[in-house]
Amino acid sequence: LQCGYCTPAMLMTAQDLLRRTSNPDRQAIREHLSGNYCRCTGYQAIVDAVEATARARGERLA
After folding, report:
1. What is the pLDDT of residues 11-26, one digit of tens each?
2. For the whole model, what pTM was predicted?
3. Count of Cβ atoms closer than 10 Å to residue 32 Cβ
4. Are 34 and 57 a contacting pair, CB within 8 Å?
5. pLDDT tens for residues 4-59?
6. Within a 10 A sphere around the Cβ of 24, how many other Cβ atoms?
7. Of 6, 39, 53, 60, which residue is the least packed, with the fewest Cβ within 10 Å?
8. CA–CA separation, 47 vs 25, rounded Å?
């Protein structure tokens, strides 16, 4: 994240996705976040972060 403009919406949307799907693939993450606008074009890093969070949560439960 760079400017923080999209942070609240990205966090809420990511939380919603991870509650619905424990291990989403990158395409599912991108689709779920697609309604949010990132001014800094930081989508790649945000998708990486959601993917890493899903993986960490999965490892914690295993």
Report:
1. 999 999 999 999 999 9
2. 0.86
3. 19
4. no
5. 889 999 999 999 999 999 999 999 999 999 999 888 877 899 999 999 999 999 88
6. 19
7. 60
8. 10
